[in-house]
């Protein structure tokens, strides 16, 4: 016997996946800030700046995707 997931189950699974994507992007930003390197002048190195920019873009994209998903499929109010 196979139990088929409902539309509600699939929406909840997709929402959890998008939230996990956002959490991963935030962790990438924390990692970039924790291991940022500075040069002799006290400025961030090129690699550190690239890591920050990459993490910021990942966060922006993940937040945008989650926000658009929540507009299409708003969370149900608790009963």
Which terms would index this structure?
mainly alpha, elongated
Topology:
Blueprint: H1 7-34, H2 46-72
Task: Tell me what the structure shows.
With 79 residues, the protein is mainly α. The chain has a domain at 33-72. Helices cover 70% and strands 0% of the residues. The chain contains two helices and no strands. Helix 1 (7-34) packs antiparallel against helix 2 (46-72). The model has no long low-confidence stretch (mean pLDDT 92).
Q: What's the tally of helices?
A: 2
Please, what is the average pLDDT?
A: 92
- Sketch the topology as an H/E string, one letter per element: HH
Task: Report low-confidence residues grouped into runs of 5 or more.
Answer: none
| Helix vs. strand class | mainly alpha
The proportion of strand residues reads: under 5%
Strand tally is 0
Summarize the structure.
With 79 residues, the chain is mainly alpha-helical. The chain is 70% helix and 0% strand.
């Amino acid at each position: 016997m196979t139990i088929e997931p409902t539309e509600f189950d699939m929406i909840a699974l997709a929402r959890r996946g998008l939230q996990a994507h956002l959490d991963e992007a935030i962790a990438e930003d924390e990692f970039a800030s924790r291991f940022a390197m500075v040069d002799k002048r006290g400025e961030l190195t090129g690699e550190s700046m690239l890591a920050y920019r990459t993490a910021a873009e990942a966060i922006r994209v993940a937040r945008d995707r989650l926000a658009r998903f929540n507009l299409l499929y708003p969370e149900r109010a608790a009963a």
